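Entry 12.
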Amino acid sequence: MKNRKSVKKSCVTKVIQGVAVAALCAGATVANAQVTRGFIGPHEYSLPDPKGMKPWNVFVEYSTFQKTGDVWGNNGGKDSSDDVEAFVSLSKFVHFWEVTDGVGIAWELIVPKVSIQNRDTGDGVSGIADLLTGPAFWIKPNQNWTLGTDMFFVQIPVGDRDLRSTRWNVVASVFWDAQYDKFNYTGNLGATINGPVERKGAAEPANQYYFNNRFGYRVSQLIEPYVGVDYQWQNSKDGAPAAHELAGAVGVMFHLAPTYHLSVHYEGGIDGKNMPVSNNLNVRFAYVF
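Predicted 3D structure (tokens):
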């Protein structure tokens, strides 16, 4: 049987997913992530009409600082845990073009950087986590809506040793964005499908499912306040209990220029089971070129 220290190290980071986020472990019995894609902001999937579109690029930097001092227990209440701090930075490069008449394609490459420190024990890990890459497709059924999917994203186990998952995973989602005058609604429904584990007899992790929503209102040319509701769940598997969390976000998007913007929001856990309580600050910077 693994000792407490080795279990904590093995579950410090387990998942880099979607437009990707690192999972952290706040205690020896809890190895699930905070809500996946909780870092997204308003207009996350606001894309132009691909019909006749010229190729273009975007660089996005997502940063999340999570401070965990509590976990959701098996009965849904909060239990105290070790003081764990995690900083995750995701660098994303995307190239866009029209793949066929009225259908756009975006090829993404995401590089996660992770630093996790247990303030109580002194244990920690940092480095490059597994890369994520794949295509996304979208259409514009009308001038107000964007509908798309990234069904073929692959998580490649090439990260630093302490952060490598040792298996290939598939990330799939459908996403949407609606713009009506000053109101914006963006969201996604996704899943992370875990590949087989490398070691024979090792526990198979459960797949994760998540639902993210952002609601923004443009109060001025510069400022757009927004709120969000996120939910993640996974089933019980190989002795690991079922887990879920409902979290809420509140933040502001700054439309600094036509080619770049900055978003900042806080996300906190509302209700959950067998997961660390979300308590994180998120920053997104995007530059179009």
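Annotation: The chain has a mean pLDDT of 86. The two ends are 52 Å apart (CA to CA).
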